[in-house]
Design goal:
Elements (H helix, E strand, L loop, with lengths): L7 H4 L3 H16 L27 E9 L3 H8 L5 H14 L4 E11 L4 H18 L2 E9 L9 E12 L14 E6 L8 H11 L15 H5 L7 H9 L6 E4 L4 H6 L7 E5 L8 H10 L3 H7 L4 E7 L4 H8 L7 E8 L1
Parallel strand pairs: 2-3
Antiparallel strand pairs: 1-4, 2-4, 5-8, 5-9, 6-8, 7-9
Helix pairs in contact: 2-5, 4-5, 6-10
């Protein structure tokens, strides 16, 4: 006996809802377009016209990343407007560690059942971050997979491509013994450590999004969802003024030591002076409420340092002069020593 006909919508995927999302986000996405974008939203591939006329040896730099379980915090708080910004800013930072100028970005939004309102907030935030940084959002993918994701959950990832002249690439090869490590402040946890933060603050302590904790600005959801800082606009201006930077590190999973280690040449190591800056209140709450060992905190979270510059110790005054008009105030966090 024949059963009841099953449609794609009946199986859990609604193509019409996906098309409605594209219609809604199109104005925000197209605002990121400049003259180098050579296609329209909705085509099978994003087209970008690369101008390398001012470069002798252009090198493309690319990266793919996500925001991890910060999406679960956004769902817990029902606040989704900033998480797209997190994704874009994280990816821009990754390629900028080489000195690359970001060119274009593509996003991937996957969920069990597509909520157009939520997805619109997320992608609109990504588009706004792209527009602010001068990056074209040339395309992306929205996937509805009811058998993979539970109700209300979604995943977010992105790919970015940038370019740098080979002669201007910053790869850490000029780092020398005695160089100074300078940190730039993080705006919260950024996009790493949320599995531990959720375990302690939400699952174990039972906090609600609107709870307030000592030392935090706003409620707990505001603190946990504070947008990932984009360091490219400010630091690129410093580099344009001939600040002699030998290396740059984006502080993500692995913490300060783990990420700075990635750019230090063989035979040298970064000596981090942990007492030079205070642990942020949010991190202090996580450590105390969960009785998290200090070493685990240092490997999991940025602890208030989102970006590290490595430069000659004698150039500290030059850096401070560049930073006078900036909201990002640098502070010394250590030095490079022999292994």
């Amino acid at each position: 006996m024949a059963g009841k006909p099953i449609t794609y919508r009946g199986a859990g995927v609604d193509i019409d809802v996906g098309e409605e999302l594209v219609r809604r986000i199109k104005p925000a996405v197209t605002r990121t377009y400049g003259p180098q974008v050579a296609g329209e939203l909705g085509r099978f591939g994003g087209a970008f016209r690369l101008d390398t006329s001012e470069m002798n040896d252009p090198v493309l730099i690319s990266s793919t990343d996500g925001v991890g379980t910060k999406t679960l915090v956004a769902a817990w708080a029902n606040r989704h407007h900033a998480i797209g910004r997190d994704l874009v800013n994280h990816c821009i930072n990754d390629i900028f560690t080489c000195g690359a100028r970001p060119l274009f970005f593509l996003d991937y939004f996957a969920t069990g059942k597509l909520d157009v309102d939520v997805a619109e907030q997320v992608i609109a935030g990504a588009a706004a971050a792209c527009e602010q940084a001068g990056v074209a959002l040339v395309g992306g993918e929205t996937a509805e997979m009811p058998d993979v994701y539970r109700d209300g959950a979604y995943d977010l990832a992105g790919t970015i491509v940038g370019v740098v002249d080979a002669a201007a690439m910053i790869d850490g090869s000029h780092i020398r013994e005695g160089d100074m490590l300078v940190g730039l402040p993080a705006n919260g946890l950024h996009t790493n450590g949320y599995t531990l933060a959720r375990k302690v603050l939400i699952e174990q302590a039972g906090h609600e999004p609107t709870d307030t904790l000592p030392g935090l600005h706003g409620d707990l959801a505001d603190a946990l969802l504070a947008p990932h800082t984009c360091y490219y606009p400010t630091v690129s201006r410093w580099l344009a003024k001939q600040l002699p930077v030998h290396g740059m590190a984006h502080i993500t999973g692995g913490g300060v030591e783990g990420n700075v280690r990635r750019i230090i040449p063989s035979g040298l190591r970064a000596e981090v002076e942990w007492d030079r800056w205070p642990m942020p209140p949010l991190c202090r709450h996580i450590m105390e409420a969960g009785e998290v060992p200090l070493e685990d905190m240092r490997r999991t979270f940025n602890l208030g340092v989102g970006w590290v510059l490595v430069l000659p110790a004698g150039r500290a005054k030059q850096l401070l002069m560049h930073a006078l008009a900036s909201a990002l105030k640098p502070f010394r966090i250590g030095r490079v020593v022999k292994e």
